[in-house]
Predict the 3D structure of the following.
Amino acid sequence: MEATYHIHTEIVDRCLAGDRTAYEEIYRLYARAMLNVSLRITNDQDEAEDVLQEAFVSAFQYLKTYNRTASFGAWLKRIVVNKSLNHIKRKKLETTPMEDELDVVEEDEEIEFEYDVGKVKRAMEQLPDGYRTVFSLYLIEGYDHGEIAQIMGVTESTSKSQYNRSKKKLLEIIKQEVIYER
Amino acid sequence: MKDENKDRLETFVKTNRQNFDQEVPGDHVWVDIDQRISRTLKPWYQQEVWLWRAASVVLLMVSLFLYQNNKTPAKHYIANNNNHEFDQVEGYYASMISEKRSQIDLFQEGKIEADDAYVVDLQRLDAMYEVLKEELVRNPSKEMKDALTLNLLIRIDLLNNQLQTIEELDREEEEPVGKSV
Protein backbone atom coordinates (compact mmCIF):
# COMPACT_ATOMS: atom_id res chain seq x y z
CA MET A 1 0.00 0.00 0.00
CA GLU A 2 1.34 3.37 -0.95
CA ALA A 3 1.62 6.02 1.71
CA THR A 4 -0.25 9.21 0.94
CA TYR A 5 0.50 12.66 2.27
CA HIS A 6 -2.09 13.70 4.79
CA ILE A 7 -2.54 16.69 7.01
CA HIS A 8 -0.65 16.34 10.32
CA THR A 9 1.76 13.80 8.78
CA GLU A 10 4.67 15.83 10.10
CA ILE A 11 3.39 15.66 13.70
CA VAL A 12 2.88 11.91 13.39
CA ASP A 13 6.46 11.57 12.17
CA ARG A 14 7.69 13.55 15.16
CA CYS A 15 5.77 11.26 17.51
CA LEU A 16 7.40 8.25 15.85
CA ALA A 17 10.79 9.84 16.34
CA GLY A 18 10.07 10.04 20.09
CA ASP A 19 9.21 13.76 20.33
CA ARG A 20 7.01 13.95 23.43
CA THR A 21 5.61 17.43 22.64
CA ALA A 22 4.17 16.04 19.39
CA TYR A 23 1.90 13.70 21.35
CA GLU A 24 0.30 16.61 23.14
CA GLU A 25 -0.08 18.51 19.86
CA ILE A 26 -1.98 15.58 18.37
CA TYR A 27 -4.17 15.36 21.45
CA ARG A 28 -5.01 19.08 21.36
CA LEU A 29 -5.89 18.85 17.65
CA TYR A 30 -8.25 15.89 17.92
CA ALA A 31 -9.46 15.60 21.55
CA ARG A 32 -12.62 17.68 21.23
CA ALA A 33 -13.88 16.04 18.04
CA MET A 34 -13.09 12.56 19.35
CA LEU A 35 -14.77 13.19 22.71
CA ASN A 36 -17.96 14.14 20.87
CA VAL A 37 -17.76 11.03 18.66
CA SER A 38 -17.58 8.88 21.79
CA LEU A 39 -20.20 10.87 23.66
CA ARG A 40 -22.73 10.29 20.88
CA ILE A 41 -22.26 6.55 21.33
CA THR A 42 -21.73 6.18 25.10
CA ASN A 43 -24.21 8.96 26.00
CA ASP A 44 -22.23 9.83 29.13
CA GLN A 45 -19.50 12.45 29.55
CA ASP A 46 -17.45 10.46 32.10
CA GLU A 47 -17.54 7.31 29.99
CA ALA A 48 -16.69 9.27 26.86
CA GLU A 49 -13.66 10.73 28.66
CA ASP A 50 -12.59 7.21 29.73
CA VAL A 51 -12.90 6.05 26.13
CA LEU A 52 -10.99 9.11 24.92
CA GLN A 53 -8.14 8.28 27.26
CA GLU A 54 -8.03 4.60 26.24
CA ALA A 55 -8.23 5.51 22.55
CA PHE A 56 -5.37 8.01 22.65
CA VAL A 57 -3.13 5.70 24.68
CA SER A 58 -3.78 2.86 22.18
CA ALA A 59 -3.26 5.16 19.21
CA PHE A 60 0.08 6.35 20.59
CA GLN A 61 1.18 2.79 21.38
CA TYR A 62 0.27 1.49 17.93
CA LEU A 63 1.21 4.61 15.97
CA LYS A 64 3.72 2.65 13.89
CA THR A 65 0.87 0.44 12.60
CA TYR A 66 -0.86 3.53 11.08
CA ASN A 67 -0.15 2.89 7.40
CA ARG A 68 -1.29 6.32 6.11
CA THR A 69 -3.74 5.05 3.51
CA ALA A 70 -6.43 6.96 5.41
CA SER A 71 -6.07 10.30 7.17
CA PHE A 72 -4.78 10.20 10.73
CA GLY A 73 -8.13 11.63 11.93
CA ALA A 74 -10.08 8.82 10.20
CA TRP A 75 -7.73 6.21 11.71
CA LEU A 76 -8.10 7.71 15.18
CA LYS A 77 -11.87 8.06 14.85
CA ARG A 78 -12.16 4.38 14.03
CA ILE A 79 -10.28 3.53 17.24
CA VAL A 80 -12.59 5.82 19.23
CA VAL A 81 -15.71 4.29 17.65
CA ASN A 82 -14.55 0.71 18.31
CA LYS A 83 -13.62 1.47 21.90
CA SER A 84 -16.93 3.29 22.49
CA LEU A 85 -18.88 0.33 21.13
CA ASN A 86 -16.88 -2.11 23.24
CA HIS A 87 -17.56 0.12 26.22
CA ILE A 88 -21.34 0.07 25.88
CA LYS A 89 -21.24 -3.62 25.02
CA ARG A 90 -19.34 -4.37 28.23
CA LYS A 91 -21.87 -2.39 30.22
CA LYS A 92 -24.65 -4.43 28.65
CA LEU A 93 -27.10 -1.65 29.21
CA GLU A 94 -29.30 -3.15 26.57
CA THR A 95 -29.30 -6.84 25.94
CA THR A 96 -32.16 -7.05 23.49
CA PRO A 97 -31.25 -7.53 19.82
CA MET A 98 -31.31 -4.37 17.76
CA GLU A 99 -34.27 -5.50 15.70
CA ASP A 100 -36.48 -5.83 18.78
CA GLU A 101 -35.44 -2.69 20.53
CA LEU A 102 -38.45 -0.48 20.22
CA ASP A 103 -41.66 -0.38 18.35
CA VAL A 104 -41.72 2.82 16.45
CA VAL A 105 -45.22 4.17 16.47
CA GLU A 106 -46.47 6.14 13.52
CA GLU A 107 -46.75 9.84 14.07
CA ASP A 108 -50.41 10.69 14.23
CA GLU A 109 -50.06 14.44 14.41
CA GLU A 110 -48.52 16.89 12.02
CA ILE A 111 -46.68 19.58 13.91
CA GLU A 112 -44.79 22.54 12.55
CA PHE A 113 -41.42 23.12 14.19
CA GLU A 114 -37.93 24.34 13.49
CA TYR A 115 -34.87 22.19 14.15
CA ASP A 116 -32.09 23.36 16.35
CA VAL A 117 -28.94 21.57 17.48
CA GLY A 118 -30.09 21.42 21.11
CA LYS A 119 -33.39 19.76 20.14
CA VAL A 120 -31.65 17.14 18.02
CA LYS A 121 -28.98 16.41 20.64
CA ARG A 122 -31.53 16.07 23.45
CA ALA A 123 -33.60 13.71 21.31
CA MET A 124 -30.50 11.66 20.44
CA GLU A 125 -29.74 11.23 24.12
CA GLN A 126 -33.15 9.62 24.55
CA LEU A 127 -32.65 7.09 21.74
CA PRO A 128 -31.72 3.52 22.66
CA ASP A 129 -27.99 2.81 22.25
CA GLY A 130 -28.40 0.87 18.99
CA TYR A 131 -30.51 3.53 17.29
CA ARG A 132 -28.34 6.37 18.53
CA THR A 133 -25.16 4.65 17.39
CA VAL A 134 -26.37 3.94 13.85
CA PHE A 135 -27.90 7.41 13.56
CA SER A 136 -24.71 9.02 14.74
CA LEU A 137 -22.32 6.89 12.67
CA TYR A 138 -24.29 7.46 9.46
CA LEU A 139 -25.55 11.01 9.66
CA ILE A 140 -22.93 12.72 11.85
CA GLU A 141 -19.72 10.71 11.45
CA GLY A 142 -20.28 10.10 7.73
CA TYR A 143 -19.78 6.33 7.55
CA ASP A 144 -21.78 4.51 4.87
CA HIS A 145 -23.99 1.53 5.70
CA GLY A 146 -21.36 -0.94 4.47
CA GLU A 147 -18.84 0.49 6.92
CA ILE A 148 -21.38 0.59 9.76
CA ALA A 149 -22.27 -3.05 9.09
CA GLN A 150 -18.59 -3.96 9.40
CA ILE A 151 -18.03 -1.85 12.52
CA MET A 152 -21.10 -3.13 14.35
CA GLY A 153 -21.11 -6.70 13.10
CA VAL A 154 -24.58 -6.45 11.52
CA THR A 155 -25.77 -6.71 7.94
CA GLU A 156 -25.93 -3.69 5.67
CA SER A 157 -29.70 -3.97 5.41
CA THR A 158 -29.98 -4.04 9.22
CA SER A 159 -27.92 -0.87 9.37
CA LYS A 160 -30.22 0.80 6.81
CA SER A 161 -33.42 -0.24 8.55
CA GLN A 162 -32.04 0.75 11.98
CA TYR A 163 -31.12 4.13 10.59
CA ASN A 164 -34.61 4.72 9.17
CA ARG A 165 -36.23 3.65 12.42
CA SER A 166 -33.88 5.83 14.43
CA LYS A 167 -34.81 8.88 12.35
CA LYS A 168 -38.48 8.14 12.85
CA LYS A 169 -38.02 7.70 16.59
CA LEU A 170 -35.97 10.88 16.81
CA LEU A 171 -38.73 12.86 15.12
CA GLU A 172 -41.26 11.47 17.54
CA ILE A 173 -39.18 12.54 20.50
CA ILE A 174 -38.68 16.03 19.08
CA LYS A 175 -42.40 16.39 18.43
CA GLN A 176 -43.21 15.31 21.96
CA GLU A 177 -40.87 17.98 23.25
CA VAL A 178 -42.45 20.59 20.98
CA ILE A 179 -45.95 19.63 22.17
CA TYR A 180 -44.82 19.73 25.79
CA GLU A 181 -43.35 23.18 25.40
CA ARG A 182 -46.49 24.64 23.84
CA MET B 1 -44.89 15.54 5.20
CA LYS B 2 -43.39 12.75 7.29
CA ASP B 3 -40.68 12.03 4.73
CA GLU B 4 -40.17 15.74 4.30
CA ASN B 5 -39.48 16.02 8.02
CA LYS B 6 -36.88 13.23 7.86
CA ASP B 7 -35.17 14.84 4.89
CA ARG B 8 -35.26 18.17 6.65
CA LEU B 9 -33.57 16.46 9.59
CA GLU B 10 -30.76 15.09 7.39
CA THR B 11 -30.24 18.45 5.72
CA PHE B 12 -30.25 20.23 9.05
CA VAL B 13 -27.67 17.89 10.61
CA LYS B 14 -25.37 18.06 7.59
CA THR B 15 -25.57 21.86 7.44
CA ASN B 16 -24.90 22.26 11.15
CA ARG B 17 -22.43 19.39 11.53
CA GLN B 18 -19.78 21.50 13.30
CA ASN B 19 -22.21 22.57 16.01
CA PHE B 20 -22.63 18.97 17.13
CA ASP B 21 -19.09 18.90 18.57
CA GLN B 22 -19.77 21.21 21.50
CA GLU B 23 -18.47 19.28 24.49
CA VAL B 24 -14.85 19.50 25.59
CA PRO B 25 -12.85 16.97 27.62
CA GLY B 26 -11.73 17.85 31.14
CA ASP B 27 -8.08 18.77 31.72
CA HIS B 28 -7.53 15.57 33.70
CA VAL B 29 -7.88 13.48 30.50
CA TRP B 30 -4.60 14.69 29.02
CA VAL B 31 -2.86 14.49 32.42
CA ASP B 32 -3.88 10.81 32.69
CA ILE B 33 -2.90 10.05 29.08
CA ASP B 34 0.47 11.74 29.58
CA GLN B 35 1.15 9.67 32.70
CA ARG B 36 0.14 6.44 30.97
CA ILE B 37 2.24 7.02 27.87
CA SER B 38 5.20 7.95 30.05
CA ARG B 39 5.00 4.49 31.55
CA THR B 40 4.31 2.56 28.35
CA LEU B 41 6.25 4.37 25.65
CA LYS B 42 9.89 3.48 25.32
CA PRO B 43 12.50 6.03 26.37
CA TRP B 44 14.26 7.82 23.52
CA TYR B 45 17.26 5.46 23.50
CA GLN B 46 15.00 2.48 22.87
CA GLN B 47 13.13 4.08 19.96
CA GLU B 48 13.82 2.28 16.68
CA VAL B 49 15.02 5.47 15.03
CA TRP B 50 17.80 5.72 17.63
CA LEU B 51 18.72 2.07 17.15
CA TRP B 52 19.10 2.83 13.45
CA ARG B 53 21.28 5.82 14.20
CA ALA B 54 23.41 3.68 16.53
CA ALA B 55 23.79 1.00 13.85
CA SER B 56 24.83 3.59 11.26
CA VAL B 57 27.32 5.25 13.64
CA VAL B 58 28.89 1.86 14.46
CA LEU B 59 29.21 1.07 10.75
CA LEU B 60 30.84 4.45 10.13
CA MET B 61 33.25 4.12 13.05
CA VAL B 62 34.25 0.61 12.05
CA SER B 63 34.84 1.79 8.48
CA LEU B 64 37.05 4.65 9.72
CA PHE B 65 38.94 2.31 12.03
CA LEU B 66 39.59 -0.11 9.20
CA TYR B 67 40.63 2.68 6.88
CA GLN B 68 43.21 3.85 9.45
CA ASN B 69 44.43 0.30 10.04
CA ASN B 70 44.82 -0.40 6.35
CA LYS B 71 47.30 2.46 6.09
CA THR B 72 49.72 0.41 8.20
CA PRO B 73 50.80 -3.17 7.48
CA ALA B 74 47.94 -5.59 8.11
CA LYS B 75 47.75 -7.02 11.56
CA HIS B 76 46.14 -10.41 11.63
CA TYR B 77 46.03 -10.56 15.36
CA ILE B 78 42.76 -12.36 15.63
CA ALA B 79 43.32 -16.01 16.23
CA ASN B 80 41.32 -18.58 14.33
CA ASN B 81 39.77 -19.89 17.50
CA ASN B 82 38.34 -16.38 18.15
CA ASN B 83 36.69 -16.49 14.74
CA HIS B 84 35.22 -19.80 15.69
CA GLU B 85 33.81 -18.20 18.86
CA PHE B 86 32.13 -15.53 16.76
CA ASP B 87 30.68 -18.17 14.46
CA GLN B 88 28.99 -19.69 17.49
CA VAL B 89 27.54 -16.33 18.59
CA GLU B 90 26.37 -15.66 15.04
CA GLY B 91 24.74 -19.09 14.83
CA TYR B 92 22.94 -18.57 18.14
CA TYR B 93 21.47 -15.19 17.18
CA ALA B 94 20.66 -16.34 13.65
CA SER B 95 18.58 -19.22 15.00
CA MET B 96 16.81 -16.83 17.39
CA ILE B 97 16.01 -14.47 14.48
CA SER B 98 14.76 -17.34 12.37
CA GLU B 99 12.51 -18.60 15.19
CA LYS B 100 10.98 -15.16 15.75
CA ARG B 101 10.38 -14.65 12.02
CA SER B 102 8.55 -18.00 11.92
CA GLN B 103 6.36 -16.91 14.82
CA ILE B 104 5.47 -13.68 12.99
CA ASP B 105 4.76 -15.56 9.74
CA LEU B 106 2.48 -17.89 11.66
CA PHE B 107 0.52 -14.95 13.09
CA GLN B 108 0.28 -13.28 9.71
CA GLU B 109 -1.28 -16.31 8.12
CA GLY B 110 -4.30 -15.35 10.20
CA LYS B 111 -6.44 -12.29 9.77
CA ILE B 112 -4.25 -9.79 11.56
CA GLU B 113 -2.91 -7.06 9.35
CA ALA B 114 0.10 -5.43 10.88
CA ASP B 115 2.44 -2.92 9.37
CA ASP B 116 5.20 -4.79 7.53
CA ALA B 117 7.72 -1.91 7.52
CA TYR B 118 9.89 -4.10 9.75
CA VAL B 119 10.62 -6.31 6.71
CA VAL B 120 12.24 -3.37 4.93
CA ASP B 121 14.22 -2.57 8.10
CA LEU B 122 15.45 -6.16 8.26
CA GLN B 123 16.49 -6.03 4.61
CA ARG B 124 18.52 -2.88 5.27
CA LEU B 125 20.19 -4.50 8.27
CA ASP B 126 20.89 -7.55 6.14
CA ALA B 127 22.65 -5.37 3.57
CA MET B 128 24.71 -3.65 6.29
CA TYR B 129 25.58 -7.06 7.69
CA GLU B 130 26.88 -8.29 4.36
CA VAL B 131 29.18 -5.27 4.07
CA LEU B 132 30.52 -5.81 7.58
CA LYS B 133 30.94 -9.54 7.03
CA GLU B 134 33.06 -8.96 3.93
CA GLU B 135 35.22 -6.58 5.93
CA LEU B 136 35.56 -9.14 8.69
CA VAL B 137 37.09 -11.57 6.22
CA ARG B 138 39.55 -8.95 5.02
CA ASN B 139 40.27 -7.38 8.41
CA PRO B 140 39.29 -9.54 11.35
CA SER B 141 38.97 -7.35 14.45
CA LYS B 142 37.02 -7.11 17.68
CA GLU B 143 35.32 -3.89 16.53
CA MET B 144 34.03 -5.63 13.43
CA LYS B 145 32.61 -8.48 15.47
CA ASP B 146 30.96 -6.03 17.88
CA ALA B 147 29.36 -4.25 14.95
CA LEU B 148 28.08 -7.55 13.53
CA THR B 149 26.72 -8.59 16.92
CA LEU B 150 24.98 -5.23 17.37
CA ASN B 151 23.41 -5.66 13.92
CA LEU B 152 22.00 -9.05 14.98
CA LEU B 153 20.74 -7.66 18.30
CA ILE B 154 18.94 -4.79 16.56
CA ARG B 155 17.20 -7.31 14.33
CA ILE B 156 16.08 -9.30 17.35
CA ASP B 157 14.76 -6.11 18.94
CA LEU B 158 12.81 -5.23 15.78
CA LEU B 159 11.30 -8.70 15.66
CA ASN B 160 10.40 -8.59 19.36
CA ASN B 161 8.62 -5.26 18.82
CA GLN B 162 6.75 -6.67 15.85
CA LEU B 163 5.70 -9.76 17.81
CA GLN B 164 4.51 -7.61 20.69
CA THR B 165 2.47 -5.40 18.35
CA ILE B 166 0.86 -8.39 16.66
CA GLU B 167 0.03 -10.03 19.97
CA GLU B 168 -1.57 -6.85 21.28
CA LEU B 169 -3.56 -6.38 18.05
CA ASP B 170 -4.64 -10.00 18.38
CA ARG B 171 -5.90 -9.38 21.90
CA GLU B 172 -7.81 -6.29 20.70
CA GLU B 173 -9.43 -8.31 17.92
CA GLU B 174 -10.59 -10.88 20.42
CA GLU B 175 -13.07 -8.32 21.70
CA PRO B 176 -15.38 -8.03 18.66
CA VAL B 177 -18.33 -5.70 18.73
CA GLY B 178 -21.52 -7.74 18.88
CA LYS B 179 -24.97 -7.05 17.70
CA SER B 180 -26.45 -6.19 21.05
CA VAL B 181 -25.55 -2.53 21.12
In short: Chain B is about 75% helix and 0% strand. Chain B touches chain A through 50 residues (CB under 8 Å). Chain B has a mean pLDDT of 75. The helical segments of chain B are 2-15, 27-40, 48-71, 80-108, 117-138, 142-173.
